[in-house]
Amino acid sequence: MNVGQLFECSLGLVGSLLNRHYQVELFDERCEQEASKKLVFSELYQASKQTTSPWVFEPEYPGKNKIFDRRTGGPFSNLL
């Protein structure tokens, strides 16, 4: 259930950036292998291209975002 919640949060971010609403029944793989991952990644990619927020989807690290240390302003090095 935790992975599904992360996908839901990602779709919520995309929805707010693109002014879209998503209705997803279940994040399971009954229809296709990795169907939920493909949906979320493709929507994140579209949001990065259609908005002024390219950070939404980084092709080198799909599904991950850089987290910055607020004290130093630099990114944390242990993202992977």
TrEMBL record:
Keywords: DNA-directed RNA polymerase, Nucleotidyltransferase, Transcription, Transferase. InterPro entries: DNA-dir_RNA_pol_su2, DNA-dir_RNAP_su2_hyb_sf. Coiled coil: none annotated. One of its GO terms (biological process) is DNA-templated transcription. GO terms for cellular component: DNA-directed RNA polymerase complex. Belongs to the RNA polymerase beta chain family. This is DNA-directed RNA polymerase. It comes from Gossypium laxum.
